[in-house]
């Protein structure tokens, strides 16, 4: 599952730290796995643990602490809607529920075509732009009205030829 090319990427991250602190690369290695495979499996955690010389449980603790690491396969587009207090006060839950209705799934589920996974998120650090969401852990979307949510989903579907 983990290729030699992936292990080479791990090595580049590990090289950034002193030999006795190579476990500091754990988050970078988890991110590499997720970029390449879409999620972090227990098998991937075991390889990372071996490469970094740390217990598997220690790697798993990092994976489960941060919600940016997928612990199961997700859709091509992972939509994380912030529902922390500032976003909640500015319709974060309304945005989440609107997406549930539009996509025909509940929070935590993936659409049958494998295109979208919908999740709620902890604070994304853009409270002044509430409600906010993060697409694929990389693209922040602000002031997400129902119209903007519809346009985002419709645009992603169109890009996939599924509009």
From TrEMBL:
This is NADH dehydrogenase. Keywords: 2Fe-2S, Iron, Iron-sulfur, Metal-binding. It catalyses: a quinone + NADH + 5 H(+)(in) = a quinol + NAD(+) + 4 H(+)(out). NCBIfam families: nuoE_fam, PRK07539.1-3. It comes from Comamonas kerstersii. InterPro entries: NuoE-like, NuoE_dom, NuoE_N, Thioredoxin-like_sf. Pfam families: 2Fe-2S_thioredx (PF01257). GO terms for molecular function: 2 iron, 2 sulfur cluster binding; metal ion binding; NADH dehydrogenase activity. Its cofactor is [2Fe-2S] cluster. Binds 1 [2Fe-2S] cluster. The keyword rRNA-binding does not apply. [2Fe-2S] cluster binds at residues 82, 87, 123, 127. Belongs to the complex I 24 kDa subunit family. The keyword Heme does not apply. The lineage of its organism: Bacteria, Pseudomonadati, Pseudomonadota, Betaproteobacteria, Burkholderiales. It comes from the Bacteria.
